[in-house]
Specification:
Blueprint (H helix, E strand, L loop, with lengths): L1 E2 L2 H14 L5 E5 L6 H11 L14 E4 L6 E5 L7 H5 L2 H5 L4 E5 L13 E7 L8 E7 L1
Parallel strand pairs: 2-5, 2-6, 4-5
Antiparallel strand pairs: 1-7, 3-4, 6-7
Helix pairs in contact: 1-2
């Protein structure tokens, strides 16, 4: 999918949030500044979460429970070792009834479940500063 604005990126997230099912896991892959947080804000909106959503850069996981399903928003960019995920009890989140969204999931590939939805966001400056190519792949 092509996104030409933050609004379009947020809207794709919102649509995916509206359709999300209990236990679904989304991985979010993309460089700094491509719109991962904007996408996540849309997903949260689609789940009925109205509180502000920001990247959980220093906490690994941010929990939002006010929507139709809980959202567990992970940012594993600063994780030093997969054992840190064990320490926070990631399996309770990954295999629970909420929605997991994991930024920088490529850093913890060895513990990802067999099935998840990968969302890859990439810039293409030749198509404009705000252009994003968003690829959704079922794994």
């Amino acid at each position: 999918m092509d996104s030409r604005s933050e609004k379009e990126t947020r809207e794709l997230g919102r649509k995916m949030g509206l359709e999300a099912l209990p236990g679904q896991i989304f991985t979010l892959v993309g460089d700094l500044g491509v719109g991962k947080t904007v996408f996540t804000q849309g997903l949260a909106e689609g789940l009925g979460i109205s509180e502000p959503v920001s990247s959980p850069t220093f906490t690994i996981v941010q929990i939002y429970e006010e929507g139709r399903l809980p959202l567990y928003h992970f940012d594993v960019y600063r994780i030093g070792d997969v054992e840190e995920m064990d320490e926070i009890g990631y399996e309770d989140y990954f295999y629970g009834e909420g929605i997991c969204l994991i930024e920088w999931a490529n850093l913890i590939e060895e513990i990802l479940p067999e099935h998840y939805t990968e969302i890859r966001i990439e810039k293409d400056l030749e198509k404009g500063f705000d252009y994003r190519r968003i690829t959704v792949t079922e794994r």
